[in-house]
Amino acid sequence: MTRRFSWFNATSLTLGFTFLYLPMLILIIYSFNASKLVTVWAGFSTKWYGELLHNEAFLDAAWVTLKVAVLSSTFATVLGTMAAYVMVRGGRFRGRTLFSGMIYAPLVMPEVITGLSLLLLFIAIGLDRGVVTIVLAHTTFSMCYVSVVVSSRLVTFDRSLEEAALDLGCSPFDAFKSVTLPIIAPAVISGWLLAFTLSLDDLVIASFTSGPSSTTLPIKIFSAVRLGVSPEINALSTIMIAIVAIGVITASLVSKQAIARRQNEEQKALKQ
Amino acid sequence: MNIRRLFLIFVPYFWLLALFLVPFLIVLKIALSDGALAIPPYVPTLDFSNGWEGIKTFFAGLDMENFIFLTEDELYWRAYLSSLQIAAISTAITLLVGYPIAYGMAKAPDEWRPTLMMLVILPFWTSFLIRVYSWMGILSQEGFLNQFLLWTGIISEPLTILNTNTAVYIGIVYTYLPFMILPIYAAIEKLDESLLEAAEDLGCSRMQAFWLVTIPLSKSGIIAGCFLVFIPALGEFVIPSVLGGSKTLMIGKVLWEEFFSNRDWPVASAVAVILLLILVVPIILFQRNEQKQRESEG
Question: Could you give the CA distance from residue B190 to residue B184 in angstroms, rounded to a whole number?
Answer without folding.
Answer: 10
